[in-house]
Design goal:
The structure holds 2 protein chains of 2 kinds. By secondary structure, chain A is of the alpha+beta class. Chain A has 2 domains: 3-76, Roll (Ubiquitin-like (UB roll)), CATH 3.10.20.30; 78-153, DNA polymerase, domain 1 (Orthogonal Bundle), CATH 1.10.150. Helix content of chain A is 36%, strand content 15%. In chain A, helix 3 crosses helix 6 (138-153) and helix 4 (103-115) runs parallel beside helix 6. Chain B is an alpha+beta fold. Chain B is built from 21 helices and 28 strands. In chain B, the strands form 7 sheets. In chain B, strands 11-12-9-19-16-17-18 form a 7-stranded mixed beta sheet, sandwiched between helices. A 5-stranded mixed beta sheet of chain B has the order 4-3-2-1-8, with helices on both faces. The model of chain B is unreliable at 1-10, 12-18 and 36-60 (pLDDT under 50). The chains are: A alpha+beta, B alpha+beta.
C-alpha cells in the first residue's frame, strides 16, 4: 500500500494507507486517536473535526492524500492533567453531555476565537454554523467560548 | 501510533475486573448484597481455586458495595450513565451515605459479570431506583448501621453518640476517640444482606449530595481521552458493516461473495436469514466492501402513504385501552354550557444519535460451549445478555455484556441492534468484531422510532367556564420495543436474524384498568384520575374518558426521550390553552382553577414568575395581523404521574409573511424532590428544553412507498448551530422533604405545547401538527378567523 506522510499532534509519521481513505479512519484506526469521531461520514455534523495548520476541517470526507500541514486533534491541544485553555473553559462550564460532538465546537471555536477573542455570542453561534449537538449543550458551549475569548484577550 | 487494546478493555476481557471476589481473598471486607449467600461462599470457592472464573453465575452477582480493610469503598451499580451525570451522582450518594470522601469511592458500572441486574437504565428511573427502597442507598445505609454497631461495641458508647466523617466513626462528645471503617473491619469477612429498614440519611442534612460536584466524565471527554464503546480495541479485531434490505420487509435471496473477493482487507461475508454483513481488517475496507457487495433481495412491504397517514391510523385494527373511563362523559358533554374539540398530530421521530451506534463482540467456542463478551452502549445490558444467549445458542451465564458509553442515545437507538450484529459476525468469523453503522444504517435500519400519534380531544365547560368533562381518544403505532430474553425480534437486527416480532394483537373491546396509572401522561393534569374507587390525578375534572388505540407500525418503534408522554402532553397542554383562549381567560389562571396538586401549581407559578408572565388572555390583542409578532406560552406536566414536575414558558417570534417561528427565550422550572447536583439538573433542563424545541420545530421522519427517505441530517433536519439560540433560564425547586424523582424528561415533555401556545399568543394561529414548519404555520395563519 502507498505511503503517506502525516504530521499529527506534533510528530511526523509515515503511514501505509489507501490514499483514498478519508483522514478520519487513519486517525482512528492507524493512530488510535479518540478525539475525532465518526458521526455521519458526510461532513454534516462536525464530530470528525480536526485542525490543519490552525483551520478546521471535516476529516470524514477529506482523502488522506489531501491532508497536509500540521494536523491537530483534541488530544493535540492538551491532556486531562494539562488541558489547553479552551478545554479548561469547556470543563469549567461543564459544556458537554455525551461529548460525542465535542471536536466540532472546540476546534471550530478555537479557530474562530483565536482570531476574534472579543467575539459576541451571536458571532460565535454563526462561526459554529452547521455543527450539531444532539444533547443540546449549545448554551454552555457558547459560554465556554466566551470564557476562552476572555482568556485569549488577557 | 497505537492500535493496542486499552488496559481497561484488556482487564475486562481477562476477567481481572472481578475484584469484588478478591476483597475476601486478600484481606478483610464488609460486603452488602441482596442475600447472605453468594458473595462469601463464592469468595471461598475462588480462594480454593486461586483464580477468578471468567464469568460468574448470574445469581451470584448480587452485591452492591464492598468496604475493604484498606478503607477503599467500591460500589457496584446496574444504572449506567449516558452523559447526564448519573455516574457522578451515584459517587455523591455513596460518599454521602457512608460519610467518606468522594475521592475514596470507586464505582463499577453496568457489567453483567460484576454488577447487580437492575434492568434497564432509562425513563428517568435512575434517581427513583437508587434512592428508593431496596437499592443502592439502602445498601449504603445497611453498611453504615453495621459499622456504627461495631464501633459502638469497640468504643463502648451507644450508637446514637457516634457520627462519621472521612470514613472515621467518632464519639460526638470526644472527637479524638474514633476508628476508621478499615480498622473496624480489620481481617474480618462480613457479608450482610440488604436491610430494607436501614435508616438512610435525611436529605436535609446532605453535605455532598445537593452540591454541584463537577462530572467525572467531562475532562476526559474534552481532551479526547475518554473511551467510548467506539474506541474499544481487541487483539486481532476486525471491522464489520451491515448490509440492510433496501426495503422494509424485503427478504434475502442471495449474496454474491465473489463481488467482494478482489477487495483488500481479507473481506468476509456473513449471511444468516435476512441478516447480511461484511467484515474486513479496517473500517475503511469494510465500508467499501459493504458498498460493493452484490445482494439480491425480494419483495418488501408497501408503506402507507405519508400524506394520508393520520386518516389511515383511525381505520386500522387496534389494541385498545382505557386509562380512565367515567360513565357520565357523554351526558356531561351533552349538558355542558359550551363544548370544545380539536385534533392534534405528531410525527414519527428519531433518536438521531450524533454518533452512529457501535458495539464490539468477542464470541468464542461452539455449541453449548459458546462464550461471548460484548461491549455495548445499550440502556439494557442485562436483557441484552439474555437475548444474546438466545441468538448465539448458549446459556446466559456464558454471555457477558459490559456497558461502555456511546453517543447520547435518548432511548432505544441502535445500540441493542448493533450489539446483535457484532456478536453474530464474531460468531460466524471466529474473530473479535467491531461494528459501527453508517449514518443511513442508523437512521433507516438501526434505531426504533418514537411513534406517530393522532389525538382527538373534546371537553365541556359549565356556565362559569369550569371544565366538567374531558374526552381523549388517541391512535398510535407500535412495532417491537426493548428486547428481553425471549424477544430479540423486538429490534431490527433480531428480526432480520429470524426472531419473530411480537404481534400487536387487536382487541374487540378496550381493556379497563384496575387502578390509575398515568405512566404515558395520557390523562391531562386537570383530571381527578378516578379509577376503581381511588383518585390519582392532579386536577378537578371528574368526568374523564381516556382511550388509546395502538396499531401495528410499519417501522420499528421504541422509547424516545419522554416516550408517548411528550406526544400526549403536546395535545393535552395545547387543548387546555385553546379552551382558556376561547373563554378569554389567562392561560395560567385557567389552569390554576383546575389544579389540586400544590407541587404542580408551584412548578407552574415558578416558571411564570421567572418569565414575568404577562397575565391576560391569548392572543395578544396588541399584535398586528402582519409582520413579525411575539408571544408567550406555557405548559406543565407531572411526569408519568409520579416522577417529577416540569413547567415551561416559551417566548417566540412569528414572521407572518414566511411562517418562520423563532424561539427567543425559554424559562423552565423543575421539582424532582431533593436535588442531587444542581448544575447537573440545570444541564438536563437546558438540554431537554432545546432538544424539545428541535423536535417541535424541525424533526419528522419521512418516507416514500418503499423506504424511509430520512437518511441523513439534510433529510432529517434538526436544530443546529447557526440557528437562533434562545436564552434558556432554569428555576430549580429543591424539596428536601420529598422522595427523589427523575428529572431527565420532565422539561422536554412540555416544550412543543408551550411553543404552540406561544405561536397562538403571538399570531392568533393554532398549530396542531408537529413539527411547526413554515408551511404549517402559514396554513394556520390562513385559517385564522
Amino acid at each position: 500500500m502507498p505511503e503517506v506522510i502525516l504530521n499529527v499532534n506534533g510528530g511526523d509519521n509515515v503511514v501505509e494507507v489507501d490514499p483514498n481513505s478519508p483522514l478520519l479512519y487513519v486517525l482512528i484506526d492507524a493512530y488510535g486517536l479518540r478525539g475525532p469521531k465518526f458521526g455521519c461520514g458526510l461532513a454534516q455534523c462536525g464530530a470528525c473535526t480536526v485542525l490543519m495548520d490552525g483551520e478546521p476541517y471535516r476529516s470524514c470526507t477529506l482523502p488522506v492524500s489531501e491532508a497536509k500541514g500540521k494536523i491537530v486533534t483534541l488530544e493535540g491541544l492538551g491532556t486531562m492533567e494539562n488541558p489547553h485553555p479552551i478545554q479548561r473553559a469547556f470543563i469549567e462550564e461543564q459544556a458537554l453531555q455525551c461529548g460525542f460532538c465535542i471536536s466540532g465546537p472546540v476546534l471550530y471555536g478555537k479557530a474562530f476565537v483565536d482570531k476574534n477573542p472579543g467575539a459576541s455570542e451571536t458571532q460565535i453561534v454563526e462561526a459554529l454554523n452547521g455543527l450539531l449537538c444532539r444533547c443540546h449543550a449549545h448554551p454552555r458551549m457558547v459560554k465556554a467560548l466566551l470564557r476562552y475569548g476572555k482568556e485569549v484577550k488577557a | 501510533m497505537s492500535t493496542a487494546m486499552r488496559p481497561e478493555a484488556l482487564s475486562a476481557l481477562a476477567g481481572e475486573g472481578l475484584s469484588r471476589r478478591n476483597f475476601f481473598r486478600s484481606a478483610g471486607a464488609l460486603i452488602v448484597g441482596f442475600s447472605m449467600s453468594g458473595a462469601l461462599e463464592n469468595a471461598e470457592a475462588q480462594t480454593a481455586t486461586g483464580f477468578p472464573a471468567p464469568t460468574i453465575a448470574t445469581n451470584q452477582v448480587d452485591s452492591w458495595i464492598a468496604i475493604a480493610s484498606d478503607d477503599s469503598v467500591t460500589a457496584y451499580t446496574g444504572k449506567c450513565d449516558f452523559g447526564q451525570g448519573f455516574r457522578t451522582v451515584q459517587h455523591q450518594l455513596v460518599a454521602e451515605e457512608l460519610g467518606v470522601p468522594l475521592a475514596r469511592v470507586k464505582m463499577i458500572i453496568c457489567d453483567t459479570a460484576q454488577c447487580p441486574d437492575q434492568g434497564v437504565s432509562s425513563g428517568s428511573q435512575g434517581h427513583p431506583t437508587q434512592f428508593g427502597n431496596g437499592a443502592l442507598r439502602t445498601a449504603l445505609a445497611t453498611a453504615r448501621e453495621a459499622l456504627f454497631k461495631m464501633a459502638s461495641d469497640q468504643l463502648g458508647v451507644a450508637v446514637d453518640e457516634l457520627d462519621v466523617e472521612n470514613g472515621i466513626v467518632f464519639v460526638k462528645s470526644d472527637r479524638g476517640k474514633g476508628m476508621s471503617y478499615g480498622r473496624l473491619i480489620g481481617g474480618k469477612k462480613i457479608s450482610l444482606a440488604l436491610d430494607a429498614r436501614a435508616a438512610t440519611k435525611n436529605p436535609a442534612n446532605y453535605k455532598i449530595l445537593g452540591t454541584s460536584v463537577p462530572r467525572y466524565d467531562v475532562p476526559p471527554k474534552a481532551t479526547g481521552e475518554f473511551e467510548y464503546v467506539h474506541n474499544i480495541r481487541l487483539p486481532a479485531m476486525i471491522h464489520a458493516r451491515v448490509v440492510r434490505p433496501p426495503r422494509v420487509g424485503a427478504k434475502l435471496v442471495s449474496v454474491d461473495e465473489s463481488s467482494v473477493k478482489s477487495l483488500p482487507g481479507n473481506v468476509k461475508v456473513v449471511a444468516r436469514k435476512d441478516f447480511v454483513a461484511v467484515a474486513a481488517d479496517t473500517q475503511w475496507e469494510a465500508m467499501q466492501a459493504a458498498d460493493t457487495l452484490v445482494v439480491k433481495w425480494s419483495g418488501g412491504d408497501k408503506l402507507p402513504d405519508q400524506d394520508t397517514i393520520f386518516g389511515t391510523m383511525r381505520k386500522l385494527p387496534s389494541r385498545d385501552a382505557y386509562a380512565v373511563v367515567a360513565n357520565d362523559v357523554d351526558a356531561k358533554l351533552k349538558s355542558a354550557a359550551q363544548t370544545f374539540k380539536a385534533t392534534y398530530f405528531h410525527p414519527f421521530q428519531m433518536h438521531g444519535s450524533l454518533g452512529t451506534s457501535c458495539a464490539v463482540a468477542d464470541v468464542r467456542g461452539t455449541g453449548a460451549n459458546t462464550t461471548a463478551t460484548v461491549w455495548s452502549a445499550s440502556q439494557g445490558i442485562y436483557p441484552q445478555r439474555d437475548s444474546l444467549a438466545l441468538i448465539l445458542g448458549t446459556a446466559k451465564e456464558n454471555v457477558r455484556c459490559i456497558f461502555v458509553e456511546g453517543s447520547g442515545c435518548y432511548g432505544l437507538n441502535g445500540a441493542d441492534s448493533v450489539a446483535y450484529d457484532a456478536a453474530v459476525v464474531s460468531q460466524a468469523t471466529g474473530r473479535a468484531v467491531r461494528v459501527q453503522y453508517s449514518r443511513k444504517d442508523e437512521m433507516t435500519a438501526g434505531e426504533s422510532y418514537g411513534p406517530a400519534y393522532v389525538i382527538d380531544l373534546k371537553a365541556g365547560v359549565d356556565d362559569k367556564g369550569q371544565i366538567i368533562a374531558w374526552d381523549y381518544e388517541g391512535w398510535t403505532f407500535s412495532k417491537g420495543n426493548r428486547p428481553n430474553a425471549t424477544t430479540p425480534g423486538n429490534v431490527i437486527a433480531g428480526a432480520l436474524l429470524g426472531f419473530p416480532v411480537p404481534a400487536n394483537t387487536p382487541t374487540t373491546t378496550p381493556s379497563v384498568p384496575n387502578s390509575f396509572s398515568n405512566n404515558a401522561n395520557v390523562a391531562s393534569a386537570y383530571g381527578t384520575g378516578c379509577v376503581g374507587g381511588s383518585c390519582g390525578g392532579t386536577g378537578t375534572v371528574q368526568s374523564e374518558r381516556i382511550l388509546t388505540h395502538t396499531i401495528a407500525s410499519p417501522f420499528f418503534t421504541g422509547p424516545l426521550r419522554s416516550p408517548n408522554r411528550l406526544q400526549n402532553t403536546f395535545a393535552n397542554e395545547s387543548f387546555i390553552d385553546e379552551i382558556a383562549a376561547a373563554l378569554k381567560v389567562d392561560s395560567v389562571a385557567y389552569r390554576l382553577r383546575h389544579l389540586t396538586d400544590s407541587r404542580l401549581i408551584d412548578v407552574m407559578n415558578g416558571a411564570a414568575r421567572a418569565a414575568k408572565w404577562d397575565t391576560r388572555p391569548s392572543p395578544n390583542p396588541r399584535n398586528a395581523k402582519t409582520g413579525v409578532v411575539t408571544g408567550r406560552g406555557i405548559a406543565i406536566v407531572f411526569y408519568e404521574g409520579n416522577n417529577g414536575y416540569g413547567g415551561l414558558v416559551a417566548e417566540v417570534s412569528v414572521d407572518q409573511a414566511s411562517g418562520y417561528v423563532t424561539v427567543t427565550r425559554i424559562v423552565a422550572s423543575n421539582d424532582s424532590g431533593p436535588i442531587s447536583n444542581p448544575d447537573g439538573l440545570r444541564a438536563q433542563m437546558e438540554g431537554g428544553a432545546l432538544q424539545g424545541m428541535s423536535r417541535a420545530l424541525f424533526e419528522e421522519v419521512k418516507w416514500n412507498e418503499e423506504s424511509v427517505t430520512s437518511t441523513d441530517w439534510r433529510r432529517f433536519p434538526v436544530y443546529k448551530f447557526g440557528d437562533v439560540l434562545p436564552v434558556v433560564e432554569t428555576v430549580l425547586i429543591d424539596r428536601r422533604d420529598k422522595q427523589q424523582m427523575g428529572a431527565g424528561e420532565t422539561i422536554i415533555t412540555v416544550v412543543a405545547a408551550a411553543i404552540a401556545n406561544a405561536i397562538f399568543d403571538a399570531a392568533g394561529a393554532r398549530v396542531r401538527q408537529v413539527p411547526f414548519t413554515p408551511d404549517r404555520v402559514l396554513a394556520a395563519l390562513a385559517a385564522r378567523e
